[in-house]
Amino acid sequence: MKRLVAISVALFAATLVSFAVIAQQGPPQSGQGRPPGGGMRTGIEPMAMDDRSGFTQIFDGKTLKGWDGNPDAWRVENETIVGESTAEKPLKANTFIIYRGSQPGDFELKLEYRINSTNSGVQYRSAELPEVGKWVLKGYQADIDFNNQYTGQLYEERGRGFLAMRGQVTQITPGKKQIIANLRSGDDLKAAIKNNDWNTLHIIARGNRLTHILNGHLMAEVIDDDPAGRAMGGLIGFQMHTGPPMKVEYKNIWLKHL
Fold first, then answer.
1. DSSP state at residue 47
2. Dihedrals φ, ψ of 42, to 5°?
3. How far apart are CA 38 and CA 35, in angstroms?
4. How far is CA 160 from CA 127, 139, 172, 173, in A?
5. 30 has pLDDT over 70
6. Which of 67, 85, 126, 166 could anchor a disulfide with 152, C-beta 3.0 to 4.6 Å?
7. Kind and range of the H or E element at 181?
8. d(Cα 125, Cα 228) in Å, to the nearest integer?
9. 248 contacts 238 by C-beta, under 8 angstroms
10. In contact, 223 and 211? CB cutoff 8 Å
11. Which has the closest alpha carbon to 124: 176, 200, 201, 62?
12. Residue 155: its pLDDT value, please?
């Protein structure tokens, strides 16, 4: 019995010493232990929306150097690429302004956009269709529309059509599209999109995985396992869509090759 009492006293003393050491060290540092209010710290920090480490600016805000589009439709104004159609100059077909600086495969693209009507989109890993017309692209598109019915989804222009609606993670195989996971509902994610105001779009293309993030929210993701249908590199461009007069603006355009 005396031996058991002695062991208990020793353990209690060791516990007191441990608490004393912790008290001297102070509260847990960032990424260690439990934060105030409960929960385990993971050491994972949120990325700032304007974090552009390793990125290169591909629009200088002054000229369309490095970009190629219909001069009747595209211009630079207030450090912004502006695409605009009017009742006097309607679009007869979808047209694009194309970045000629590179044709990236794996990359990240960050930009801000604002739209006041109709439809637009950011093309990537795309190809030209000169047989259809000048400044015409086909390929992956981060869709944008004024009513935000489709904004954030992954659409393939002049290709396989809808690849992932907003709120979906999909896998594309030859002749088949499947939802493999659901994010928040499309309507919930729609609430994160600013109407007729500036939004931040972040596209990540790495291998056959394509990710759309808008205002810090994951909107859609595609795993493209269709070797004949997918593209592993190509052009970047912005779309102007046919329909009523519209104005779309793009600025703070940054690209990082992976």
1. P
2. -105, -15
3. 6
4. 14, 9, 10, 11
5. no
6. 166
7. strand 176-182
8. 14
9. yes
10. no
11. 201
12. 98
pLDDT at 6 over 60: no
Global pTM value: 0.83
Specify the pLDDT at position 40: 63
Domains and CATH numbers, the chain: 1-45 (no CATH), 56-257 (2.60.120.560)
- Is the predicted pLDDT of residue 34 greater than 80, yes or no? no
Phi and psi torsions of 204, nearest 5°: -120, 120
Instruction: Compare 147 and 52 and report the one with higher pLDDT.
Output: 147
Condensed to tens digits (0 to 9), the pLDDT of residues 47-103 reads 777 788 899 999 999 999 999 999 999 999 999 999 999 999 899 889 999 999 999
Residue among 127, 67, 142 nearest 97 (CA): 67
User: 240, 246 in Cβ contact below 8 A?
Assistant: yes
Q: With contact defined as beta carbons under 8 Å apart, do 91 and 85 qualify?
A: yes
